[in-house]
Write a structure and sequence with these properties.
One of its GO terms (molecular function) is uroporphyrin-III C-methyltransferase activity. Keywords: Methyltransferase, Porphyrin biosynthesis, S-adenosyl-L-methionine, Transferase. It is an enzyme of class 2 (transferase). The structure is a single chain. With about 375 residues, this protein is an alpha/beta fold. Among the domains are: about 120 residues, Tetrapyrrole methylase, N-terminal domain (Cobalt-precorrin-4 Transmethylase, domain 1, 3-Layer(aba) Sandwich), CATH 3.40.1010.10; about 120 residues, Methyltransferase, Cobalt-precorrin-4 Transmethylase, Domain 2 (2-Layer Sandwich). The chain is built from ten helices and 14 strands. A hairpin with a 7-residue loop joins strand 12 and strand 13. Helix 2 packs parallel to helix 5 and helix 8 runs antiparallel to helix 9. The longest helix is centred in the N-terminal third of the chain and has 22 residues. The N and C termini lie far apart (about 45 Å).
């Protein structure tokens, strides 16, 4: 099947010709932007219209049991609740009874149509990685599971283009989290997955990137398995791999970087101090990839330099990588935080630090820098 996704890049500098690396007129790159006619964000924002259109079946005040699970025509015309924050109040208590009724309808529908119902009455749960945003990066297995699911619980960083692949008879429920706003606690997500599986539904938990890389997928898997629910994991391309490939940055390179390390920029206590900062992280022969590190980057960069990483280490920050709204900033480590602030990058932004960044065709004077590194 053809996936509806096309990049249209508009580079904010004119001297770069990727087919002519020998040009001596390359200018330093501060920021690259991508123009697109689609919405301002490729992802589901906490109070976006798209979210309420997908989830309006949950907030419907009609308490009558629906005869089927086919898509509702009124979904496209639903309005955003006047007080969207109030929906969060007692959400789990209010919604679970209705969702259970809907899944009972599904079970009866299966039985009447001769569909297979699990012998033990329990459904399967799939933890599916959707990659960094581009639906073309989904695995074939992920697409098949997404299209056959009864109900899908999706995170904020599952792109709208991926959600467009969901089957017409499935239900979607947003459980995303962003700084300062969690639509569900992790414990509530656990209970939702368990309740749906106990009703015999095929439940898909959609996560951006890979479900077992900074996605708390391991916690959900452990909880469900302890309750006797079978969990299957379908890996996704983690942001580090997908975005670095998009920029032509090898995470490892013979003679330049012999290892790669994934870090979370989140602080253990929610402050400005990154969680993983130590002497062994400041290795000039390694590549560092920092997830969720916008707010803690100034402190991270300072400590990495303090522990011996050269201040002129090449680095890049990539907002909404692999999507039409992708923006990038390239700079030396000592200047990266200021460049990000000037460009006003927002979450999600991935940060890559290391000599391999200079191998990207987007790095200023990339040919000269790459030649020097290879010679060394």
């Amino acid at each position: 099947m053809a996936l509806p996704y096309t990049h249209h890049y508009d580079l904010s500098f004119s001297a770069l010709n990727l087919k002519k690396f020998g040009s001596s007129h390359l200018q330093p790159i501060c920021c690259l932007r991508c123009n697109s006619s689609v919405s301002s964000s490729p992802f589901t924002e906490k109070h976006s219209l798209q979210r309420y259109q997908r989830d309006q079946w949950v907030y419907n005040n009609n308490n009558q049991q629906r005869p089927s699970l086919s898509c509702d025509d009124e979904a496209a015309s639903c309005s955003v609740p006047a007080d969207s924050d109030s929906i969060r109040l007692n959400d789990i208590t209010l919604q679970l009874p209705e969702l259970r009724k809907l899944l009972q309808v599904l079970k009866h529908k299966r039985e009447s149509c001769g569909g297979q119902v699990p012998k033990n009455g329990l459904g399967d749960v799939f933890l599916v990685g959707t990659g960094p945003g581009d639906p073309d990066l989904l695995t074939l297995k992920a697409v098949k599971v997404i299209q056959k699911a009864d109900l899908l619980l999706y995170d904020r960083l599952v792109s709208n283009a991926v959600l467009d692949l969901v089957g017409p008879d499935a239900r979607l429920l947003y459980v995303g989290k962003t700084a300062g706003y969690h639509s569900r606690t992790q414990e509530e997500i656990h209970e939702l997955l368990l309740s749906f599986a106990e009703a015999g539904a095929t439940v898909v938990r959609l996560k951006g990137g890979d479900p077992l890389v900074f996605g708390r997928g391991g916690e959900e898997m452990d909880f469900l398995q302890q309750q006797g629910i079978q969990v299957k994991v379908i890996p996704g391309i983690t942001a580090a791999s997908g975005i670095s490939a998009e920029l032509g940055i090898p995470l490892t390179h013979r003679g330049i970087a012999n290892s790669v390390r994934f870090l979370t920029g989140h602080s253990r206590k929610g402050g400005t101090d990154p969680l993983f900062v130590a002497e062994n992280a400041a290795d000039p022969d390694s590549t560092l990839v920092v997830y969720m590190g916008l707010s803690t980057l100034p402190s991270l960069a300072e400590k990495l330099i303090h522990h011996g990483l050269p201040p002129d280490t090449p680095a890049t920050a990539v907002e909404r990588g692999t999507t039409p709204q992708q923006r990038m900033v390239f700079a030396e480590l000592k200047d990266l935080a200021d460049k990000i602030k000037t460009a006003e990058l927002v979450s999600p932004t991935l940060i890559i630090i290391g000599k391999v960044v200079a191998l990207s065709p987007f790095w200023p004077q990339s040919l000269t820098e790459a030649s020097r590194l290879v010679e060394v």
